[in-house]
Amino acid sequence: MKIAKLFAAAAVLALTAATAQAEIKTVRIGTEGAYPPFNSTDSSGQLVGFDIDIAKALCEKMKVECTFVAQDWDGIIPALLAKKFDAIVASMSITDERKEKVAFTVPYYQTPGDFIAPKDTKITDISPEALKGKTLGTQSATTAAVYLEEKYKGSEIKLYPTQDEANADLAAGRLDAILADKFVLYEWLEKSNDGKCCKFVGPDLKDVNPQGTGIAVRKEDNELREKINAAIKEIVADGTYKKINAKYFPFDIY
């Protein structure tokens, strides 16, 4: 009887080990594809950007094959939980609310929130009191959206499916200001024709994204999360992260 139990236990351990190994061979990455320069689609329909390059570097360190899935932002966490992909690499800010649904890796970059407004704006003070009665915009289901709705109750808040749509309304004069991640706004201001309309106003708001930006996985996928954590440390240590960073920004975002 004892021998039979030992054989049974050994079989269970072998099956568990085999399953764990099988899980690591392929990782499906979910991303938005509408948040340049972090993730977007090029003229050929391929996903490109900082997030995509970081994900590919992590997959190389983990020695796994990665595939990418484009997913609308509003449904990206439900899609992860429905197992349409295994990890979200989409510049997702780590928040306590999101941690109730998913598990996060260590942060792979830090970004403050910032306001931008037309170049001829009279806005200099970005406090809730100073922006009372102003029309403010940002992408829905983001930390910036939560921040505006919680702190700028005297303003009219407009939320958009994508950041590009919010930016377009600012350029068209339908918004007084936008709040969003600084690095995304920097890209638009510096590298797009529409962005020439506008400028940063006020100081960085570090409390918009206080926990940084991480990669989300399902709570039960702790092994995958730990492997990604180890890979993040590797690409920072060996200079891979620095090379990717320099491709998109003239300053360190880590």
Strand and helix map with partners:
Blueprint: H1 2-23, E1 26-31, E2 34-35, E3 39-41, E4 47-48, H2 50-62, E5 65-70, H3 76-81, E6 87-93, H4 96-99, E7 103-104, E8 113-118, E9 135-139, H5 143-151, E10 156-160, H6 163-171, E11 177-181, H7 182-191, E12 198-205, E13 213-217, H8 222-237, H9 240-248
Parallel strand pairs: 1-5, 1-6, 9-10, 9-11
Antiparallel strand pairs: 2-3, 3-4, 6-13, 7-13, 8-11, 8-12
Helix pairs in contact: 2-8, 2-9
What does it look like?
Pfam families: SBP_bac_3. It comes from Ancylobacter oerskovii. Its main location: periplasm. Belongs to the bacterial solute-binding protein 3 family. It contains nine helices and 13 strands. It has 254 residues and is of the alpha/beta class. The protein folds into two domains: 124 residues, D-Maltodextrin-Binding Protein, domain 2 (3-Layer(aba) Sandwich), CATH 3.40.190; 93 residues, Periplasmic binding protein-like II (D-Maltodextrin-Binding Protein, domain 2). Strands 5-1-6-13-7 form a five-stranded mixed beta sheet.
